[in-house]
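_Full entry_
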Amino acid sequence: MARSRIVFSLSLVAAIALVALVVGVVGGRATSSAGQATGAGSGGAASGKKIDVIIKASDSSFWQTMIAGAKQAGGDFGIKVSTFGPTSETNIDEQVQLVENAISRGADGLVIAPNSASALNSAIDRARKAGLRVITVDSRVTTASEGFIGTDNLKAGMQAGKRMCELLKARNRTSGGVMIESSVAGIQSLIDRDAGFKQGLALNCPQVKAVLQRYNNNDINTAASQVNDALTANPDLAGVFADNNTSGVGAARAIQDNKAAGTVPVVAFDSDPQENAALAAGTIDALVVQNPYFFGYQGVLAAGMATVGRIPPRDIDPGAVVADQHNMTEPDVKQLLNPPTMKAE
């Protein structure tokens, strides 16, 4: 199998320019340890600015990686970064309260991975009216912000659909039905991801259809039960697409319990220790890996720019890479699979 390479969006050129500009704006000195990332950089117009970072859920290593990136940026460029998150991706009300808290705390900027495309709109509007500069990451909202940083999920989903087709062809299957195991209904990034997966299948294996979709509310046990039920009820199920790390871990458990590794391929999104272990064991065949560390780091830089009147790029996509057993130990892929993590405060 050809080596998968990390291909970044052309908009990453804007991100590189952003880093160069922020260095001039905040004048912070780089540090080598994420543990020092508490605003220790010196000098510059944005040094000392307060940026609140709100993740989607505190129980996921994916979002803990975003926190690590945000904290590192704070330390590198002298920005005071505080990090928060609800206990679950389904807890939208708690995210709204965290935005309100940022306003009350007098934050200068906000980096948020919203759990809804619209339910955060009023809170974000209030924050911007209060003078906060808002950068959204991972999932878009339908109100205004100063910029967005995140994977093009439609494109990344198409990568997943293409890989599923390759895995099925390797098993001499060119028709049949696959399951989409999803996390939470109504999340735009997941909607785009699932739509892209279907497009990738249609382009490469037109006789393979997504015939079943379930939502697990970001619960591993529920995901495992749903995939197990699907395998039992559909003995000819061709494959499973799991559209986030919780769904991927649950799918891998069901595959293991049904001894279906090698017969029912699983393509999942993101990475965490359990998904990585499943990839090594073969209960997950491929992971479409994002770069949440970049989300956090670049989000803080963009917010820092906006707080001092500079204009950050409107849209930055760091791209995604497909990891499998053949390339998971290569340095660039291994780094994405095993990024640093930090917990919310």
Summary: DSSP finds eleven helices and twelve strands in the chain. The mean pLDDT is 89. The longest helix spans residues 153-170. Residues 147 and 314 are 4 Å apart (CA to CA).
